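seq as requested:
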Amino acid sequence: MENKQKHYGLGTAISMIVGICVGSGIFFKADDILSFTGGHVGLSVLVFFIGAFCVIFGNITLSQLAAKTDRRGGVIAYFEEFISEKAAAAFGWFQLFAYYPSILVVVSWVAGIYSTILFRLPATLELQMLFGLGYMLFFHVLNYFSLRLGAAFQNLATIMKLLPLIGIGLIGIFWQAPALTTTAQLTVPIDQVGWSWLAALAPIAFSFDGWVVSTSITHEVKNAKRNMPLALTIGPLVVLGVYLAYFLGMVAIVGPEYILANGDNTIYDIGVTLLGPQGGQIILSFVLLAVLGVVNGLVLGNLRLPQALAEKGMIPNSKKVKLIDSKTMLSPYAALASIGISLLWLALHYLTQKTGILAGGDVSEISIVFSYITYVILYLRVIKMHQAGEITSPLFGKLFPIFGMVGSAVIVVGGIVSNPTFVPIFLVLCLLVFLAGYTYYKK
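struct tokens:
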């Protein structure tokens, strides 16, 4: 029975990590990273490496917990088994009420941005949000009523999103034509950038996010104690290679000043440069499919999370929420909760973008930054398990968790540097959600 359950090899584990991490972030965060680093390509590349560092050691540390439990559910299961059920409820509430919906609405909005560019419509925030709302609702309906169609779209989008990333990277290596010209001179002298480049770690964290989901398959991986740490090291390095290829390819083709001046429209202009007048539409079609694949994947998780928490009695009205419809094999109440919470975050995201209070960032980056704070609880647990002799290796039980905590600290500092006024306020709101889950389960 055990062999049948453990059906994933090292290659499958790596491809899953790459498929989860490589998403929408790099397409619309590249200009943000370049902006925070003052337009300096070398400093931007350094930030990419720091982001990979933060992910890799967090990955490997959590894999030590994953290898010691048969419970399904990823990080929530680790909190439940190794910390407490109250802590699991707290993290579950954070994921349900902040993490998943905030990322979902931002990625849906990004799909709206690329839709307005693709169809040559006015690039107003309202129209972008309207597209985003439509995509978000469509994928909720699709995944609720047809598990097969949702899975098929996910497979298609995984292939689509790698083509422009790798293609632009390869073209950039051999690109000889002069970069596109722009009248804007936006590069800041390196001595004036100061520590503001740390703010680039927030969009980097968004671009690499999703890696924790991969730990949920550990119990299905053959020789997990060997293969999962390997996969969780190699996977982020592959993601780093793909991201750097895409980023440096863009820089080679159009130049950093052009990226800073044109932002999200840069990918369209690159398509025209490479493929002619229709090239912008062609490459944007691939990008839009890739982003919609991320929306679909987030909805897949978001639809199931209320149901999973209800089965553990961790949310109000658990008896109703955990009831599954025999036709769809999903909980209708969980679906309604997913849509309702997402709509609230859509309104909040609209307000933050309209007022500009997050200074070019967005609400999803704050949720991701807070998630790195919560991972520290698990990293400390791994260190305690090493001290108790449950984890014998000092590398896996002490050094790597310390590196993981350093990585978390770097990302948190970067998030606060990006907006010292409002990011701490939003982080406190995430903490209140976390504590609300803890208090609810305790009572």
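The radius of gyration is 21 Å.
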